[in-house]
Specification:
It is a single chain. This protein has helices spanning about 15-30, 50-70, and strands at about 1-5, 75-85, 90-95. A hairpin with a 4-residue loop joins strand 2 and strand 3. Helix 1 (about 15-30) crosses helix 2. By secondary structure, it is an alpha+beta fold.
């Protein structure tokens, strides 16, 4: 099982499991509507709600986006943290890889 946060840097030569993990991190760091040719790619933002509701909605959106755009990764657990007053929400995801011998 691997723990992943939003992307910090890109490894252009990533292959196999590292490629899958990088794809998950990229999905988590992309806000929906940011990709001009695929407006639904990424995570829809969640605003103007109590932090408990934001965490639930954001968790669901992260899991949905990962399952849609990187089906080789299975989300096993997700931890959402943030400060609602500052508009900061981030997630840590634990994933397993389908066909681990990739």
């Amino acid at each position: 099982m691997y723990e992943i946060e939003a992307m910090k840097e890109i490894d252009y030569g990533a292959t196999g499991v590292q490629e899958i993990l990088q794809n998950v991190a990229f999905i988590m760091s992309t806000v929906a509507m940011d990709c001009p040719l695929d407006r639904i790619f990424g995570i829809e933002s969640v605003v103007d709600k109590p932090i408990t509701i934001i965490k639930a909605i954001y968790s669901a959106r992260v899991v949905e986006a990962i399952s849609r755009y990187e089906p080789r990764a299975n989300v096993e657990a997700i931890e959402v943290s943030g400060v609602a007053e500052q508009g900061l929400v981030k997630a840590k995801v634990q994933v397993s890889i389908n066909g681990e011998s990739i």
